[in-house]
Design a protein that fits this description.
The longest helix is centred in the N-terminal third of the chain and has 15 residues, at 34-48. The chain contains 14 helices and 17 strands. The chain is globular and about 60 Å long. It has a 9-stranded mixed sheet with strand order 9-10-8-7-6-5-4-1-11, with helices on both faces. It has a 3-stranded antiparallel sheet with strand order 12-13-14, with no helix packed on it. With 369 residues, the chain is α/β, with parallel strands linked by helices. The structure holds S-adenosylmethionine and iron/sulfur cluster (SF4). Iron/sulfur cluster (SF4) binds next to loops.
């Protein structure tokens, strides 16, 4: 039983533009509300202090576009959050100026996750990104110049119109810059988004090609010396462990506190989601009361299943222990024969083989009793 969450997520929902494929909790513009929102976050932090451990391992500011928040407000927020070993901020490249990079650094941020998505102009257009490839490169150099030695890129593949050679070129462009970490996501058609309405059929048609795109991503990045440590995540190998400590905590089923509109926390056998409505969130915290929440009790069984589902996304074998109770032994034997799963001689650990990792969630779902 944990004595407090060692991981803090802070949601900043503001964006310059609502990208058609995105279903995160975001709002466009609203500059006049940024200060009030930061006040609300800090009030929520005070209300939930008792959930946090005295010392934090990670803080992650995600969005939305955290770096679109008025910079003075972002600075005030960063200056008021508890210290942690790893402090990450998500940034959209077009928002990264020399001044912003320096400010983040001076406020103790030591990791930046840059939403690159693609370096191909025609694909950035399809995604409705306002950024040009050279702006991505400029953002990267501003961060390096400010002293950031732990930068991650988000890339998306499976964009309508993207050929295998487009993807290859994106990976080559990313590798040329050499970030410490890369997250590569297959573009998902999120229900109800403008993008799914416009391109849903095309995404369905290309679904079969996606396995080979995924293989191309893994081949290129591992050949360049990156460790494929989680289904969609890669880090440079060095004497330092460059895996995302924050996301690792989530994949390992640790407790975390999440602040902000629409934010989801997991703590002491409960999961709660704050209201996704900005006005309600601001109003409740303006009165120094907890915002409306959906609360889900997490049974021991559900937590164990989640730990298997998430733990098998990692490259290190999952130590089963009490998790063995939710794993179907006959499925393990069957999937072992198919070369999708590996367990050690006395069945204490379980891992997916590279082939199993390509097939991913389907294999894991089969394993659960
Ligand atoms: C919170 S989001 C957005 C961060 C940042 N505002 C940006 O746009 O770069 C984090 C990442 O999720 C990924 N993402 C968002 N929508 C997606 C979708 N429909 N399918 C796959 N990946 C998606 C993108 O790679 C994005 O960088
Ligand atoms: S993809 Fe990023 S910038 Fe675009 S709407 Fe979503 S959070 Fe905002």
């Amino acid at each position: 039983m944990s004595s407090g969450a060692r991981h803090l997520y802070v949601h900043l929902p503001f964006c310059a533009h609502r990208c058609g494929y995105c279903d995160f909790v975001t709002v466009v513009g609203r500059h006049s509300q940024h200060a009030r929102y930061v006040d609300a976050l800090l009030t929520e932090l005070e209300l939930e202090r008792n959930v946090l451990a005295p010392e934090l391992e990670t803080v992650f500011l995600g969005g939305g576009t955290p770096t679109f928040t008025e910079h003075a407000e972002l600075e005030r927020l960063l200056g008021s959050l508890p210290p942690a070993t790893e402090i990450t901020v998500e940034a959209n490249p077009e928002t990264v100026t020399q001044e912003l990079a320096r400010m983040l650094r001076s406020q103790g941020v030591n990791r930046v996750s840059l939403g690159v998505q693609s370096f191909r102009l025609h694909l950035l257009d399809v995604l409705e990104r306002v950024v040009q490839p050279d702006i991505v490169r400029r953002a990267f150099y501003h961060l390096r110049d400010a002293g950031f030695d732990n930068i991650s890129f988000d890339l998306i593949y499976g964009i309508p119109g993207q050929t295998a050679s487009d993807l290859d070129a994106d990976l080559a462009d990313a590798l040329e810059l050499g970030p410490e970490h890369l997250s590569c996501y297959e573009l998902e058609a999120k229900p109800g988004t403008r993008f799914t309405h416009a391109h849903g059929d095309e995404l369905e048609r290309q679904a079969d090609a996606m396995e080979s795109y995924f293989e191309l991503v893994v081949e290129r990045l591992t050949a360049a010396g990156y460790r494929w440590y989680e289904t969609a995540n890669f880090c440079r190998t060095s004497e330092l462990d460059l895996r995302s400590r924050h996301n690792l905590a989530y994949w390992l089923g640790r407790d975390y506190l999440a602040l902000g509109v629409g934010a989801v926390s997991t703590f002491a056998g409960r999961r709660w989601r704050n209201t996704p409505r900005l006005a309600h969130y601001l109003e409740a915290l303006g009165r120094e009361t907890t915002p409306e929440r959906e609360v889900e009790p997490l049974s021991h069984d559900v937590r164990r299943r989640e730990r298997v589902m998430l733990g098998l996304r990692l490259d290190e074998p999952l130590v089963l222990g009490e998790l063995a109770a939710v794993v179907d032994e006959s499925a393990v034997s069957r999937l072992e024969l198919l070369g999708l799963v590996q367990s050690d001689a006395d069945g204490r650990t379980l891992a997916l083989t590279p082939r199993g990792r390509f097939l991913g969630g389907g294999v894991t779902a089969d394993l659960l009793a």
